[in-house]
Design brief:
The protein is an alpha+beta fold. It has a single domain, classed as Aminopeptidase (3-Layer(aba) Sandwich), CATH 3.40.630. It has five helices and eight strands; from the N terminus they run ββαααβββαβαββ. A hairpin with a 4-residue loop joins strand 3 and strand 4.
């Protein structure tokens, strides 16, 4: 089980560990920040998520605490402040069981370019292959040609398609790039 992995990047230390029940408030706070700051990057939106009843958010969070088949991996400062996270879910159907989805990647802007995203992807990839026994990792990235798209390419993901007009923000459409990594 992945827990308390400490890495040192640019003279700073960060802890990478699975989110647990006591991290619920930090999880909700970070998702709201992500939806507010990068609306084109997520299928959910800030206003809808903010209006969602707390019990529904708790139910969702509880469902993703099922390591190794569903979890949220967080990056924390040494004083336990959540600064980055990414979700992971395996398909449950026997015919799709070899595939997993990485979702909700977000790193606070002030902590970007410290290698945190790379470590999150590296740990998720290792866990998907070794613990969940998945063979490929899928992700959707929007908008196309964004920093995120280049980031995932640098981390071994390849583009296998585009869902045109996948998201609609006001009167504008955003395409999503479908990417995968063979494990």
């Amino acid at each position: 089980m992945l827990y308390n992995i400490i890495s040192q990047e640019q003279q700073e230390e960060f802890i990478y560990r699975l989110l647990e029940e006591e991290d619920f408030v930090a999880f909700v706070t970070m998702r709201k920040e992500a939806f507010r700051n990068e609306p084109e990057a997520f299928g959910s939106d800030y206003l809808t998520y903010s209006a969602t009843h707390m019990i529904d958010k708790e139910h969702f969070f509880e469902k993703v605490l099922n390591y190794p088949f569903s979890f949220v991996l967080g990056s924390f400062t040494l004083d336990n402040v959540l600064i980055g996270m990414v979700g992971f879910s395996c398909h449950t159907s026997p015919k799709r069981r070899h595939k997993a989805i990485m979702w909700g990647m977000y790193v606070k802007p002030e902590y970007r370019y410290h290698g945190i995203g790379n470590h999150l992807v590296e740990i998720i990839t290792l866990s998907a292959k070794e613990d969940a026994r998945c063979e490929q990792l899928l992700i959707t990235v929007s908008p196309p040609e964004s920093f995120a798209h280049k980031f995932y390419e640098e981390n071994g993901f390849v583009r296998y398609g585009v869902e045109y007009r996948a998201l609609k923000l006001d009167d504008e459409y955003v395409d999503e790039v479908l990417m995968m990594k063979i494990l």
